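pasting Pseudouridine synthase for the record, 242 residues
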Amino acid sequence: MNMSNEQFPMRINKYLAHKGICTRRQADDWIAQGRVMVGGEPAVIGQQIQAEDEVVVRSKDLAKAASDRVYFAFNKPIGLATEDVLEKLVPTLPKKAKDVFPVGRLDKVSHGLLVLTNDGRVTDRLLNPKYVHDKEYVVRTDKPITQNFLTRMGKGVKLEDGYITKTAMLAGEVGAKRFSIILTEGRKHQIRRMCTVLGFAVKDLRRVRVMNLKLSGLEPGEYREVIGKELKVFLKSLGMVK
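structre below
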C-alpha cells in the first residue's frame, strides 16, 4: 500500500500493518520482544514514526511469519453457522493450521466458499469497503426473474434502511429462477435484502468465488489448502505481495 507523507506521523504498528508485513497485534508483540528497529534503535510500542524513518524487522522473523501463514478454501454446507465452522474443521486440519479463522461469513441457510486463514492481514484487505474485490454468487429465486429485476439489481437497489447498493454484474435469463451476481461489497444479507425489495424471495444462495479463489471441485464440508500460483495471485490482488 502506498502511503503519502500526509499520513505521517503514524503509529509503528499501523505502519507495519499497512505495509502488509504483519497485523498490528503481531507488530506490538515483535516490538515488545525487541525485534523491530527504528533508525537503528529498538522500537517502542505506540511509537510515532515519520515517512523518512528506517524501520527494520529481523529477516528471520519475517521468514517465520510467512512460513506460519496458511490459507484454505472451504465449502460451507447449508445448516452450518459460520461461527461453528472451526469446531467442525479444527480436528481435521493439518497441525500447521494453527489459529485459523473464517474471513467474512455466510448465514446458516446459505452455502459455498469461505476463506479460512491465520493471516490477520487478510481481514481488513478483504472486508474493508474501501477495497474493491469481487465475490460471485449463484442465486435461486421463488419465481421467474424479469428484465426489470435484472436491470435494477445491476444498477443498485435502495434497501429498507435507505442504503443504495453499488452496481453489480448479473447474468441470468428472463423467465428462469436462477441468476449469478458479482458484488464488490458485502453488507449483511445483502442479496436477500435486494431481492426482497424487488418482490422476490431467495430460495438458495451459494457463493462460488472470492476474487480468484473458486469453489469448483469442493463438495459441501470439504476444504483445500490454497498454495502456489493461486495463493500468489490472491495475495497480490490484496496488495500484500508485489
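The mean pLDDT is 91.
The chain is about 25% helix and 25% strand.
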